[in-house]
Amino acid sequence: MTTDALTGRTIELCEDRVRRAGEIRDEIGRRWADYLGEHPRRLTAVPGQTDGEWIFGVRTIIPMPVRLSTLFGEWLYELRAALDATAYYLAIRDSRQDPPPNERRIYFPIKLEAAAYDKSQHRSDLKALSDRTFQLLRRVQPFQAHPDHFSNALWWIEELARIDRHRRGHALAPHIGRIRLGLEPPITSPRWLVPESAPKRIPATDVLTPLLAFTTPAGWTENDVRDHVVLTEESVTSWLDVTEWADKASNPMRAMNLERRMDNCEQQILDGIILPLLTSEIDPSTASPRSGPAENEQAVEGCS
């Protein structure tokens, strides 16, 4: 296969993998909407440890489908596979051998520390790459991101894949968003059970997620409590997210909901890294990784 044909075939493959990742992202959104349509959580009040103390929270009555996390793992795989295919192509191009030398050790490196990238063993593993290509890949590493790596797509793909591989349960989890309710007398002494420092999206547990404690006259029942708690259909908003991603992401990624963050990663990886590498449009003297969308791109609040 000629170099031009191999380049075209690799571009087609990588574009299709990222396109497939987008289709998986859309399917996650549809399945999440279907799940919410089953009204899987219910606002409820349970007695506290003393007479007159009540805990108000959200009870999960229908667990989140396992398939959502399975799909998220597939989304991660497609993006990682597109990156690795790019590295393999670069190894063939630079070495002029197919398969390239040390082919089983070829992968797209993602390193948080410069020392890990610069290790002699790491260079040896990727010996099929030219020095120029190796240095070019160094320029797009998360440790080069500004102002930090917490909005860098490469780092998050690596970190989320680690979470997805080693978590016993879901990487994705339901989260509780906006909380709006009112308390009428004689309810007294309300106190939030969610720390003020907690993120605006609170992970929902499989049973009761406590939100608020308060005091009522002795002998009250749950119906008495409900008669004095003012709720609307939008009192609590449900979100789908990866807790670590929502908590640690820096701006502008922090302001995005899960769907927007996933879409942004797809764009960063394909348009900002893969295609420039495959078409030799990255200048190694100026290349640098993007930590997020362009400065004039509006970061939006997420929706449920």
Features of the shown structure:
304 residues; 3-stranded antiparallel beta sheet; 43% helix; 15% strand; disordered C terminus
Report on the structure:
The chain is of the alpha+beta class. The protein is built from nine helices and nine strands. The strands form three sheets. The chain has a four-stranded antiparallel β-sheet with strand order 1-2-7-5. A three-stranded antiparallel β-sheet has the order 6-3-9. Strands 4-8 form a two-stranded antiparallel sheet. The C terminus is likely disordered.
Task: Give me a quick take on this structure.
This protein has helices at 3-37, 66-95, 114-118, 120-125, 131-139, 153-166, 222-227, 243-248, 258-278; strands at 41-47, 53-60, 173-179, 182-183, 188-192, 202-203, 208-215, 229-230, 236-241.
SSE arrangement:
Blueprint: H1 3-37, E1 41-47, E2 53-60, H2 66-95, H3 114-118, H4 120-125, H5 131-139, H6 153-166, E3 173-179, E4 182-183, E5 188-192, E6 202-203, E7 208-215, H7 222-227, E8 229-230, E9 236-241, H8 243-248, H9 258-278
Antiparallel strand pairs: 1-2, 2-7, 3-6, 3-9, 4-8, 5-7
| Helix segment tally | 9
- What coarse outline follows from CA principal-axis ratios? elongated
Radius of gyration, in angstroms, nearest whole number: 24 Å
Multimeric organization: single chain
- Give the helix/strand class: alpha+beta
Fraction of residues in H or I helices: 40-55%
**Proportion of residues in β-strands:** 15-25%
Order of strands side by side in the largest beta sheet? 1-2-7-5
Number of domains: 1
Reported for the largest beta sheet, the result is: 4 strands, antiparallel
Write the element-wise H/E pattern from the N-terminal end onward.
HEEHHHHHEEEEEHEEHH
Number of E strands: 9
Low-confidence segments, given as residue ranges, are 284-290, 292-304
The span between the termini is 48 Å
Mean pLDDT: 88
